[in-house]
């Protein structure tokens, strides 16, 4: 979770500072959003976490509506200036998916079902049947993706007046995301690993290089998981119990995906020429962290998260089709960052539990050469400094 927060913060800072979406070729028929006050943004966040109607939450999002009135005031030089002041506030509903409320409801609903598994088994079977049916529908949908993707890109391009401007904006966006991924990969994660373990983090990168190459080709953390197991257990000599627990759990953590989603959401807002307040930017960051943990580790799943974050934050997503043109590069890069972060997590977990796990193995281990085998395994796992120095040489 901490690494995802760092990745989201890095993406926010870079996108706000570089502003890759600021240009002259943005679409012109989008509605400008009102300037939210920070306290109202967080109030809307709390309202949406607990929706009044779970069915309505699939189609409506609560927000603070401002009643404004133009007022003529005297300026600095004695001239009259017209300003808009807020005369009242009210809670209103707008079109969109309240993803934050849906996720909170599903978590609470699942926890409640787990308290009595026998009584809720029928409901669980019903949900599994729905899941299978939806997957069947998605299978048919996937066959239409080539035509649908081309149509989506074409529709987005037809709304742009200046073609050079849009490709220039996409280039700056790709450079911003790449810079954020490299910064997170080679600065923040190594610092975090060194602080937690006092070991060389680049040895982990070297040992999981085969998994990173697989991630570049497959663009899926799920497909890379078996290779990552072999790298961590065989190359890095991490304990099998640590790998069996940490690596599957870490699939819910996508540092690269979180950085890409937050950069894309802000880029779409900049393309629509929306002046975002600090509260709106923080709301996008919070939604990104929550939704990233819900996305499957499959290729291009982050595009779904971008649409959901934009709808929840009130950002127009008409130009999201343009991002597909950069997916061949950015999807591979962010998957590599995700996989390397999984290896870093396994290394930190192995370092934290090394003494407890080997003591447990001492108590349960039996065999003819048990003592000799345990000593060899301990030296391979705990003597990290010697192993790292040999790798460096």
What is the topological layout?
Blueprint: H1 2-18, H2 38-49, E1 60-74, E2 80-95, H3 99-114, H4 121-143, H5 145-158, H6 163-197, H7 201-207, H8 209-218, H9 221-235, H10 240-250, H11 255-271, H12 278-292, H13 302-313, H14 327-364, H15 370-382, H16 384-392
Helix pairs in contact: 1-6, 1-11, 1-12, 2-12, 6-11, 6-14, 8-9, 8-14, 9-10, 9-14, 10-14, 11-12, 11-13, 11-14, 12-13, 14-15
From the structure above, extract its key features.
393 residues; mainly alpha; two-stranded antiparallel sheet; 16 helices; 2 strands; disordered C terminus
Describe the structure.
The protein is mostly helical and 393 residues long. It contains 16 helices and 2 strands. Strands 1-2 form a two-stranded antiparallel sheet. Helix 1 packs antiparallel against helix 6, helix 1 (2-18) crosses helix 12 and helix 10 (240-250) packs antiparallel against helix 14 (327-364). It starts with a helix and ends with a helix. Mean pLDDT is 80; it is low at 25-35, 365-374 and 384-393.
Brief account:
The protein is 67% helix and 8% strand. The two termini are 35 Å apart. The longest helix has 38 residues, at 327-364.
Q: What are the secondary-structure elements, in order, as H or E?
A: HHEEHHHHHHHHHHHHHH
Q: What low-confidence regions span 5 or more consecutive residues with pLDDT below 50?
A: 25-35, 365-374, 384-393
Give the helix level as a range of percent. 55-70%
Mean pLDDT: 80
**Order of strands across the widest beta sheet?**
1-2
Tally the helices.
Answer: 16
Q: What about the largest sheet? A: 2 strands, antiparallel
The proportion of residues in beta strands is 5-15%
- Topology, number of strands: 2
Cα separation of the termini: 35 Å
The shape is: globular
Return the structural class. Answer: mainly alpha
Radius of gyration: 25 Å
* Quaternary class: single chain
């Amino acid at each position: 979770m901490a690494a995802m927060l760092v990745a989201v913060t890095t993406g926010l800072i870079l996108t706000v500072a570089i502003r890759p979406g600021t240009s002259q070729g943005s679409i012109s028929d989008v509605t400008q959003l009102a300037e939210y006050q920070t306290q109202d943004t967080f109030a809307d966040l709390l309202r949406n976490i607990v929706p009044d109607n779970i069915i309505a939450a699939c189609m409506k999002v609560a927000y603070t509506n401002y009643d404004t009135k133009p007022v003529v005031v005297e300026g600095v030089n004695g001239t009259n200036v017209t300003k808009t002041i807020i005369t009242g506030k009210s809670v209103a509903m707008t079109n969109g998916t309240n993803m934050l409320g849906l996720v909170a409801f599903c978590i609470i609903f699942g926890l409640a079902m787990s308290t009595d598994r026998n009584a809720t088994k029928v409901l669980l079977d019903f949900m599994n049947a729905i899941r299978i049916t939806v997957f069947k529908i998605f299978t048919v949908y996937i066959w239409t993706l080539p035509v649908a993707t081309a149509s989506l890109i074409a529709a987005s391009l037809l709304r742009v007046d200046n073609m050079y401007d849009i490709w220039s904006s996409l280039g700056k966006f790709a450079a911003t995301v790449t810079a954020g991924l490299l910064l997170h990969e080679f600065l923040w994660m190594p610092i975090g690993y060194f602080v937690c373990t006092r070991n060389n983090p680049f040895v982990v990168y070297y040992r999981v290089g085969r998994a990173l190459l697989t991630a570049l080709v497959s663009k899926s953390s799920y497909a890379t998981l078996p290779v990552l197991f072999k790298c961590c257990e065989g190359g890095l000599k991490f304990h099998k119990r640590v790998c069996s627990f940490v690596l599957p759990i870490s699939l819910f953590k996508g540092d690269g995906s979180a950085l890409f989603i937050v950069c894309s959401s802000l880029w779409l807002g900049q393309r629509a020429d929306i002046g975002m307040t600090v509260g709106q930017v923080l709301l996008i960051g919070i939604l990104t962290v929550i939704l990233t943990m819900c996305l499957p580790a499959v290729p291009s799943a982050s595009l779904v998260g971008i649409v959901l974050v934009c709808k929840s934050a009130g950002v127009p997503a008409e130009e999201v089709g343009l991002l597909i043109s950069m997916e061949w590069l950015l999807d591979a890069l962010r998957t590599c960052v995700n996989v390397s972060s999984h290896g870093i997590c396994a290394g930190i977990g192995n370092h934290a539990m090394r003494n407890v796990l080997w003591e447990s193995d001492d108590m349960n281990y039996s065999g003819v050469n048990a003592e000799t085998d345990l000593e060899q395994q301990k030296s391979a796992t705990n003597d990290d400094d010697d192993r790292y120095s040999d790798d460096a040489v």
